[in-house]
Fold each of these.
Amino acid sequence: MSAPRIHGIVLSGVGGQGVLSLAQIVLEALRRSGLHALQSEIHGMSQRGGSVHAQVCFSDVPLTSPIIDEGCADLLIALEPLEALRYVAMLRMNGQLVVSEEPQADMEGYPPLDDVYAALKRVRGCHLVDTEALARRLNHRQAGGMALLGLASTFLPVSEGVWHEVISQRFEAKGARVLEKNLEAFQAGRGLVHDPVGV
Amino acid sequence: MAQSTLALGVEAVGCAAFDAGIKGAFGYPGTPSTEGFEYVEAMIHAEPEDRLAQWAANEKVAYDLALGVSYAGHRALVTMKHVGLNVAMDAYANSALTGVRGGLVLLVADDPGMHSSQNEQDSRRLAKFAWLPVLEPSTVQECYDFTWRAFELSETLQVPVMVRLVTRLAHCRALMIRREVLAPTGLGLAPKETIQDWVLIPSNARRRYLDLLAKQPRMVEALSSMNRLVAGSGRRGVAVAGMGRAYFQQLALEHPELNAMPRLEVAAYPMDPGLEPAFLAQVDEVFVFEEDYPVLEERLTFQRAGKIHGRLDGSLPRTGELTPRLLKNALGLVTTEGQAASSLDLPIRAPRFCDGCGHVDAYEALQEALRNLGLADARVFGDIGCYTLAAQEPMTAIHAVVEMGASISMAVGAAMAGQTPSVAVIGDSTFGHSGLPALLTAADSGVNVTILILDNRVVGMTGQQPSQALDQVERMVLGMGISEAQLQVLTPLPKQHEANVKALESALGHPGPSVVVFRRECIQSLRRGVLKDHDRELRACVEQVGCTPEVRP
């Protein structure tokens, strides 16, 4: 019997950007797709504008470890470019990186943006998303996260219907308008062309 | 049909406690334990007829509340983080001697790697110290199942039972399958003939200590099915517990050859003393994977020195969390070559104060007042909360942070040693937690100490839980013996800066103890409207009954 394949997703960003919320959507979507999934998150001081990251592991067999080893992640979803670079070594050689171009640079020593973008473009399977332009086009300031999820969703074994179910459940309490805007952002992300800028 | 839902490990403990029929849940917030209490609190508040959930002023109070519920014959849960157990240790260690009536379960969440703590102490050691059982789950489902088991064991053995989690499990979210919910039912008050068991005067305590020691073999027996030896081939074995067990199990999925290794799987303590010799007889070499202190590893090393690989022999780092990579390296497995780490220098993105936080205004006023008084090397004793962030560059406004409530006592001690004026900074919730007795001593000492109470009206850092000191701070300060003349209440806002600096200069200049309360609600709780109902009731009370705002409605 061959060993089962264990998949890993890393999500990263800055406290307040909604990293943990996205991770929970991914976890729920995988679970509804009949997969065994675990999520790991670190709370606490990280809520105060520090780096935040979460991991989701899944497989078709029951899992016990909520964290994956370096070099084993299939997908990295980063809401912020510098926070993507921190976790690049988590990616396997043929992994995918879905990352927002929008920096959160209100910190000491943020590197020049051109250097950050250049470093990201050296990552194999990097998809740099201009979330700012997308948010403007959709007239939805916080569209970025859901759009990144939309693009990332195309790499995951979850049907479009399940994604919609989970997103609807997540946002229905906030009203039809909020839900509609989030589904729109998700679909916009899903429609982005697979055009890795990296190698 | 069994309900299943996604939950964090700590939430599964809270949920199981509810399902197992607890009457009361108590706790003090502290990462990574907080959500465990919040989960059960939400369940209890949804149907509050027969049960209650209450944050306590500190962990010791929480523990004693739970012990009181147990005395009255009901099941109780108490939750805290590892360092909180230090605060509750007096209650915990002595409740081992009194024993319990209704099942009493203590959820403790350890923080190896110190994600948000000042140390990485291992609560298994404290359970051993108190001669009490501790269960160590490794998955979310085990968090749920072991908590049920803990209540049953607690009532069978008549002792409190600890469920010990670590950060990775506490904050692991996975599927939890629930059992049928038990309604809270009581065993009735501790019977009259057992009253002396609960009165720990020396004559009773000597007897109860012997009783506790006599219970040890019963504990071992009751827990024996939770620990097991798995036979294998070859002379290399592994001993695993907690997350070490979880990581190894998953590694064995990817590397099926690992399943052939003889295994000692530990999930509960005290262990059967025969288990380790039986295991060691099967192997020449052992790898020990456990989270935090080398508890199992030391036991195995005592029994046979050499070829026990873990944190003590350098096969694993001496400190910090376990990771799958560390296990792979120790076992000599090939690791996957992934993408190269970025060569760019990546500065740390440290947590910082929220924009508009009142703590910043308070610190700016303090720093300017100290400068104006020519106190270039003033040392400020800080405490535990969001305001601890002021220790970081470039602010460096506090110069010592040790444990809850230390700010006031350390400042008084330093003042006694001649370091004056001496300054302490403490939050309202930490003040209620363990600052009160320190302030009593400060007032009594008469030394030149200035105590800043940063009152943001909530427990800010852990998620804006209600502070026990809400609307009570001035009365508490006066009650501890600080004179009205030496108590000032200020608003930390930029437009009040000049006035606040002056007020602080006067407090610092006073030769005896003085207190300055900086009060402005946490902007996160304000945004979420945490205190909206409370404040509306408060205003209505003032208008209708004419009571003063410092009295709770």
Amino acid sequence: MKPITVNVDEYLALNRYQVDEQNAHIELAADPSPTEFAKLIRVCPAGLYRLDSAGQRSFDYAGCLECGTCRVACGSTIIAKWTNPAPSMGVEYRYG
Amino acid sequence: MADFDAIIVGSGCAGPMAAFELASRGKSVLVIERGNYCGAKNMSGGRLYTHPLREVFPNFASDAPLERRITHERISLMAPDANFTIDYTDQHMADPNHESHAVLRGRLDQWLATQAQDAGAEYINGIAVESLIKQGGRVAGVRAGEDEISAEVVLLCDGANSLLASQAVGTDPPSPAAMAVGIKEVIQLDPSVIQDRFHCGPGEGAAWLFVGDPTHGTTGGGFLYTNQDTLSVGLVATISDLMAAEVPIYQMLEDFKHHPALAPVLAGGTVVEHSGHMVAEGGYSAMPPLAADGVMLAGESALMVINAGYTVRGMDFALAAGTQAGRCATAALDAGDTSLAGLAGYRQALEDSFVLRDLKTLRRFPHFMENTPRMFNAYPQMVRDAMRAVFLLDGEPVKPLRKSLPPLAKKVGYLNLLRDALGGIRAL
């Protein structure tokens, strides 16, 4: 993969969210296959699936845009759970 | 006796239209929308062809929150270092029947919901329907939070990422090849700057699609729509292809915004929102059944979208399908039969309307796009090279175009060109 130069977190910070700190509405399989994880890095528009320079993989549902792309891409492999956020939680588009 | 005549899941474009039809004819209707307000979870490119709205709300233009009316259609073939654009404008674009507008769903969907509420539909916001209640194989209601609510008929209008459609009609979830992901940023600019940059008057604007470099050569394209005081700029990329791309989609969007042909258009603008949403890409052949016993699907939950390359449509289908679903459900309720047989008029109504006619006409296009990777890299570069041969001078004697152009076609392959041209013609 080519280097990533954009800081997507700065863009997500512009959005309005009601973050559910108690409940992860998306969960990954315990030991996700690196090949499958590599797909999620590319398809998630919020950049929630990351590989750092030390080769460490991470995922944070807090900035989720609730598009479901990861579910379609890896719902049968490493996405163990995908539900809508709990009532009144998640992203709130002001423009949409 | 059920709690409601009809329950509608989702209040985007299809849901409120269906709710309006049912409530206007005296049916008890509950709309359950997971956004805290309607539109809170929704995103489109987006451009709306307004004729299905006009049919139901003749005065929509005076109070619906529409953005700029589209007066310029632009299509660009974008190479990494060049861009070739076709710009079409026409007085006929102002005809009520042809009119289209840029829209922002966070605003439009609230207005649509208000029309349904004013007609008598009840709304619950902020709660997602988790599953369908089934009795003897037929859908009989919904579960949301702690509640079970029953209805004679349930309408699924819950969009591209419907978690209920497969439960309702028994199909598999859509495949990564049948779905694309859309990413978008809303960029604020002064209205007069937008007018100057897009050569249009107040309230007028452009719909602009790009193919090639925006998706780094993978299947998909870029888009730009002009709103009143913002631009909607983004990309759509087919998920199966994007999985192996050279950069993530959010990096593609950043690169697109910095392309030398686009950067000056966006200069001085401020990003105010970053959004993502799926888009159905499979066309007619990927669509699930539109009804089963006690349940109907309308809009993107039934994958009613066409990406024909030069235009992307989904909201017009959803509005019209929602209206037809509401009318058909009303008739089925009156007849006391909301089984699949009782709801059969819905599919027929869509077959007779532009919805399924257009989806059928363009049913080969998704396959064509998927099997013509040259569209996303070789052709934009070929056009760039041809334009260089035509326009760039350096003091050396010019070569006649009949000598300089054929080698460019040869680079792609005459046979490939012919095959792709014929394939494209057949698909459209």
